[in-house]
Write a structure and sequence with these properties.
By secondary structure, the chain is mostly beta strands. Helices cover 6% and strands 40% of the residues. Helix 2 (60-68) links the parallel strand 1 and strand 2 (74-77). It is rod-shaped.
Length: 637
């Protein structure tokens, strides 16, 4: 657009071939846009504005006159004015401000399809007043209500809250953040910084930062929604300034706190250094559904990156790192379990395609139904990568699916303590680190299904106190044991089938330790080390079924086992022998991998023969007579 200036005629200010007018405040009679001084005839100036359809407002009397006359069009307010009574604007008025403010002065200003034309400067002073009616606005700005963007010494809390109140009173709208802002006090009468109401969007760009002030209390969420719906936070940074706190990881110092309501979008946000949680969602009176958290970075928060109690929450494409360390250091007991990247306590939730690393724990799933954790990288968390637990919940987790995740570098890859038997672990690549690390730790669980993927640790999979049907079919990479089943897993018919273990070191692919019973070990490939070991630990394993495995060997203790058709471990054999003339016995090397529990011998005549002295390597065939050679056949199992 071409440069456009006012003429320097002393009696008029007329725009020459232009659609932009440089407005000079009536008190300024010294200069114009061209740099040439002139004296302005105010009545002529007003006449020319009116020729352009603009109503010039300098006093409250002029403002009231336009309201009374139901005058439509654009009103240019060029002086500070204060309402003296509540007013309803005529339909379609556009309020334009030129370095001026409108003070509601305790009254109500009602819009009727009202538009606003203003820059990033204060134009409103609520002063106890309210807005109502309808406003047609593309967006609003905290600066309109007095925010001093870019100044970390000035508290913008009042301006932010007046902005959100304004949108709440007119039915919603957008707040555009274009600078850095400082929230240093609570909303008046409340225990949080800024309240955001239904149908409100707050969005920004790379330069938009909202920083928690040094004087905002420890127990204070920055942004809070209270039973609101259709709310969006998009594209700006929240700096929690947790260094201001004496004890981070305690209280409600949260970036965004969603209480009740639903249909909340949190997208493209960078939230960091909150004293407690980056994002916290809580159901209120059993209400709270549908939160989408997408493409966010949540880093270095003292409690939890995302703490979710909502139903149907979707977390996707997020980077969630370095969270929970202060909570873990400053809390005790079971509360420490919440110190993690993502804490899911709401039904029907999903976390997918996220990078979750260097937190105390990666993901906690606790006492919920129908949750999905898929296609995430969960890496280098201090304790567990994933926890499925009922420790902090009143019920077991049900219908949990953990699939296609890379979970590595954690002390435990996955720890399950409380599931109702509908847990599915599919195609996860799990590896752990540390002297006592475990790929998958299972205890106090009513069963699960593991298929695909691989599990690497000192113990690839360790199972305690199982009480439901469980099936394992995966690649085992435990350096000591692929699967370690501890005493107390009884009567559950744990099935380990179609697994591959090609580790050449360690004690054995599968260890059954102590009072373990009811285990099926079927169709596995244990090719480089002892396939199955049974150990006495307060008792021996019993009643296992071991069939059709490929193995280099087994160590069997206890009774009641059924062991058949295992390559590399002979449990059935047969052959023939001869008791020579003048002899009464013949010793047979049976070639079985275990001491047989069944022997059958059959002579080639009617002479009575029998077996005795069975050992792990041989048995003896006996007869009564000692003359003539006696041929016989034998089989052993």
């Amino acid at each position: 657009m071409a440069d456009q200036r006012l003429t320097t005629r002393p009696d008029k200010a007329v725009a020459e071939d232009t659609d932009i007018i440089y407005i000079v405040r009536p008190s300024d009679t010294s200069a114009d846009a061209s740099g040439t001084g002139f004296k302005m005839n105010r009545s002529a100036f007003r006449t020319d504005l009116e020729d352009l359809g603009i109503k010039h407002v300098q006093t409250i009397a002029e403002f009231n006159s336009l309201v009374t006359g139901a005058t439509a069009g654009k009103w240019l307010i060029s002086s500070d004015i204060s309402l003296t009574a509540s007013k309803t604007l005529p339909t379609g008025v556009e309020l334009s401000f030129n370095n001026s403010t409108l003070d509601l002065n305790g009254f109500t200003l009602t819009g009727t399809k009202t538009k606003i034309d203003a820059g990033l400067t204060q134009i409103f002073n609520l002063n106890g007043g309210l807005f109502a009616g309808s406003f047609e606005l593309k967006e609003t700005y905290p600066e309109w209500f007095g925010a001093k963007g870019g100044d970390d010494t000035v508290d913008d809390s009042v301006a932010f809250n007046e902005n959100t109140d304004f949108l709440n009173n007119i039915g919603g709208g957008k707040i555009k953040l274009s600078s850095s802002y400082y929230i240093d006090s609570r909303r008046s009468g409340d225990s949080w910084g800024v309240e955001v109401f239904s149908n409100t969007s707050i969005y920004g760009d790379a330069s938009s930062i909202v920083k928690v002030g040094d004087n905002l209390g420890n127990d204070t969420p920055l942004f809070l929604t209270n039973s609101a719906s259709n709310v969006r936070f998009n594209g700006f940074e929240i700096n929690g300034n947790k260094q201001r706190l004496g004890t981070p990881g305690v209280g409600e110092d949260e970036g965004i706190d969603i209480k009740g309501g639903g249909n909340i979008w949190i997208t493209n946000m960078y939230i960091h250094d909150m004293g407690m949680d980056g994002i916290d969602t809580d159901r209120v009176s059993n209400v709270g559904d549908n939160v989408i958290i997408d493409n966010c970075i949540i880093d270095s928060c003292g409690g939890v990156g995302i703490h979710n109690n909502f139903y149907a929450t979707l977390v996707t494409n997020c980077i969630i790192t370095n969270n929970g360390h202060e909570r873990y250091a400053n809390q005790t007991g079971q509360v420490q379990l919440d110190a993690c990247g993502v804490d899911f306590k709401g039904n029907d939730g999903k976390v997918s395609n996220c990078y979750i690393a260097d937190n105390v724990r990666g993901v906690n799933i606790s006492g919920i139904n129908n949750s999905v954790l898929s296609n995430n990288s969960i890496i280098d968390n201090t304790l567990e990568g994933v926890v499925v637990s009922s420790v902090l919940a009143s019920s077991l987790s049900t219908n949990t699916i953990i699939s296609s995740n890379v979970i590595k570098g954690n002390l435990y890859g996955i720890w399950v303590k409380g599931s109702d038997g509908t847990l599915e672990l599919t195609s996860n690549i799990v590896s752990s680190q540390g002297a006592s690390n475990i790929g998958l730790k299972i205890e106090d669980t009513n069963g699960f299904v593991i298929s695909g993927g691989s599990y690497l640790g000192v113990f690839g999979i360790e199972i305690d106190q199982l009480s439901g049907i469980t099936k394992i079919s995966t690649e085992l990479k435990g350096s000591s044991n692929g699967v370690r089943v501890n005493s107390g897993v009884v009567g559950t018919w744990l099935e380990i089938s179609n697994c591959l273990d090609n580790i050449s070191t360690g004690a054995g692919a599968i260890d059954l330790r102590g009072l373990v019973s009811g285990v099926k070990i079927l169709n596995n490939n244990f090719i480089n080390r002892v396939g199955i070991r049974m150990l006495n630990s307060g008792g021996n394993p019993s009643n296992t079924i071991i069939k059709d495995n490929q193995t280099t060997g087994m160590t069997i203790l206890g009774t009641g086992h059924l062991i058949e058709r295992n390559s590399g471990y002979i449990t059935e054999n047969y052959g023939a022998g001869t008791i020579i003339d003048t002899a009464t016995t013949d010793v047979i090397t049976h070639g079985l991998s275990i001491t047989p529990t069944f022997i059958n011998v059959t002579g080639d005549n009617d002479e009575h023969i029998w077996y005795s002295t069975i050992t792990s390597t041989e048995f003896t065939v006996n007869r009564t007579a000692s003359s003539g050679a006696l041929n016989f056949s034998w089989e052993g199992k």
